[in-house]
Amino acid sequence: MLEAKVKLADGMAFDVETPSGYHLTIDAAPDVGGQDKGPRPLELLLVALGGCTGMDVISILRKKRLAVTGYEVFVRAERAQEHPMVYTSIQVEHVVRGKNISPDAVARAIELSETKYCPASAMLRPGTNITSSYRIVEE
């Protein structure tokens, strides 16, 4: 089981505590009453999605003994035109650095992460359009 304690702190801010001892304050944007005391909940979701898929992809590529020397994940969310607080499109770009990295292996690792391994992907609304792309940078 995974759990977290989220408690109202001040204004629109909440203090978060996890069993692993991690503490964080999350807050709303100033235009809706927040005070910029911490990241927004959506930012944390994007971090979770990028981190989760990134960890999966790196793990899969390392098991294939590919010479990955660097890895970055860029995650962007776009608002729905009809509702400014709803995000319906998320783009995930993977940048893999190394020598002789197989494009097929990268594509397959991303697919496995998104469909089988990453719980952050599974927790998003079914109507959310998540698109992934990747670049391989030879180093």
Describe this structure in words.
- The protein is 31% helix and 40% strand.
- By secondary structure, it is an alpha+beta fold.
- It folds into two domains: 1-39; 41-138, K homology (KH) domain (GMP Synthetase, Chain A, domain 3, 2-Layer Sandwich), CATH 3.30.300.20.
- The strands form two sheets. The chain has a three-stranded antiparallel β-sheet with strand order 1-2-3, with no helix packed on it. Strands 4-5-6 form a three-stranded mixed β-sheet, with helices on one face.
- A hairpin with a 2-residue loop joins β1 (5-10) and β2 (13-17).
- The chain is globular, with a radius of gyration of 17 Å.
Topology:
Blueprint: E1 5-10, E2 13-17, E3 23-26, H1 41-63, E4 67-80, E5 83-99, H2 103-117, H3 119-123, E6 129-138
Parallel strand pairs: 5-6
Antiparallel strand pairs: 1-2, 2-3, 4-5
Features:
alpha+beta, 139 residues, three-stranded mixed beta sheet, GMP Synthetase, Chain A, domain 3, single chain, 2 domains, 31% helix, 3 helices
Summarize the structure.
With 139 residues, this protein is an alpha+beta fold. It has helices at residues 41-63, 103-117, 119-123, and strands at residues 5-10, 13-17, 23-26, 67-80, 83-99, 129-138.
